[in-house]
Amino acid sequence: MNAKSLLGNDKRTILIRKNVIASFAIKGWSGIVLFLLVPLTLKCLGTYENGIWLTISSMLLWIEQMDIGLGNGLRNKLAVYIAKDDLQKAKTAVSSTFAMLMIIMATTLAIILTVIQCTDIWSFLNVDVRIVPNLKEIASIVAILFCSSFVLKFTGNVYMGLQLPAVNNVMVVAGQTLIFVGTAVFYFLKIHSMMTIAIINTASPLIVYLVAYYITFYIKYSYLRPSRRFIHYDVAKELIKQGILFFILQMSGVVLFMSSNILISRFFSPDNVTPYQIAYRYFSIILLVFGIISTPYWSATTDAFVREDTQWIIKSGKRLNVITAIICLGALFMLLISNLVYRLWIGLSVAIPWSMSIAMAVYVVILIISLRYSCILNGLGKLRLQLIFTAAAALMYIPVSALAVRYYHSIITLIVVMCIVNIPGLIVNGIQYKKLINNTATGIWNK
After folding, report:
1. Nearest alpha carbon to residue 174 among 29, 271, 300, 54
2. Angle at which helices 194-214 and 165-188 cross, to 10°
3. Exposed end of the chain (fewer CB within 10 Å): N or C?
4. pLDDT tens-digit readout, 81-122
5. From CA 301, how far away is CA 316, in angstroms rounded?
6. Which segments of the chain have a pLDDT < 50?
7. d(Cα 368, Cα 7) in Å, to the nearest integer?
8. Could you report the per-residue pLDDT of 179-201, keeping only the tens digit for each?
9. Are 375 and 294 in contact (CB under 8 A)?
10. Which residues fall within 8 angstroms of residue 3, CB to CB, at 6 or more apart?
C-alpha cells in the first residue's frame, strides 16, 4: 500500500495529504535543528545549568495553556464557519479571540512576575544561588518575552482552522531555526550564559510571530484581520465554553510533563534533568511524526461532521489504525538503536541508562495510541471522558510519583508512573471512539 492509497483520494483527504507532505519536509528540518540544538546548548551551559534551563523552559508550558482553550476553540469554530462560508462570523471569532488573549496574557504576566519576585526560586528548583545568582532576572525576562509571543501565536490556530496546519508548522520551525542560529553565534563568540540562552529561546519565536501576523492579516487573509468593531465578548465566552475542555486536557498534559522536571530537580539534582530530557527528545521524534500525520485529521473531522460525511470519518479511522501500527514499530526500531544514536548525538558527556530508554519508548507508544483516538474525538467535540481521565492522571501523578520515588530512588520510577496513569485514558478513548463510529454512544459516551 503506497502513501497515496493509505491517505485516500477525496478532496478533503487530498488537502490532508498535501499538509502531511509539507509538514514532513518542515518537521524534518525541525528535527535536525532540535537535534543539533541539544548538544550545542549543553556545550554552552554545561550539565547543571542546562538542567536548570530545561526545567524553566518546561515551566513555560504552564503559561502556554493560559489561553484557557481559546486557541483550540477558535480552531474548531473557524473550521465550522469556513465550511458554512460565514466569513463575518469567522472574523468575529478571530477578533474576539485576539482581544481575550491580550487580556488573559497581561493578567497572567502580572501574576507570574509577582510570584517570581516574592518567592525563593532557588530553593523551589533546588538551585545553588552561587552558580546562578541572576535566576530571578532570567525568569522575569523569559516570562515577558514568552507571554508577548504567545498572544501572537494564535495566528497558528487560524491556519489550523483553515485546515492548513503546515503553515503553523512553518512558523514554529522558523522560530526554532532562529534559536539555533542565535545559539550557534553566541557559542562561537564564547558568550555562554544562561541569560543569553534564555533571551535567544524566547525572543526568536516572538520575531517570527510578529512577521507572520503581518503577512497573515495584512496580505494573505485580510478579511480575517482582528478589528475592534468585530470584538464580541459573548462570542469569546462561547469559544471559551468549548475551549475550556481543551484547556483542562492540555493543562493536565502539562502537569505530567512539567512536573517530572521539577520532581527530578527537587528529589535528585538539576544535573539529572538533562539525561531525562535527552531521552524524551529522542523518542518524541516518533511522536512528532505521528503528530504531523494525525493533526490535519482534527479540523478535517470537524469539517466532515458539519457536512454529515460520516463515511469519511470511518475511512479515516481505518487509515489511522494502519498508520499507528507503523509508527509504533518505528518506536521499537528507535529503541534498538538508541545507544548508538546517543553516542553519535551527544557523545559520552551524558549517560542515558538502557532502562530509561525502554520506559520512555513505552510511554511514547501509549501516548501515540491514545492520540490516534483523541484526534478524531477532538474533531467531533467529544471531550468529556478525555477530560475526566486526563485530569485524573494529572492529579494522581505528583503524589504517586513522590511516594514511589521515596521507595524506589530512581528517575525511571517517574516514567513508569507516567505510563501507568495514562493507560486508563487510552482504553476509554478507544472504547468511546468505537461506540461513536458504531452509532451506539449514549450518555457520557456521547459527550
Report:
1. 29
2. 150
3. N
4. 877 878 888 888 888 888 888 888 888 889 889 988 888 888
5. 9
6. 1-7
7. 18
8. 999 999 988 888 878 899 999 99
9. yes
10. 17
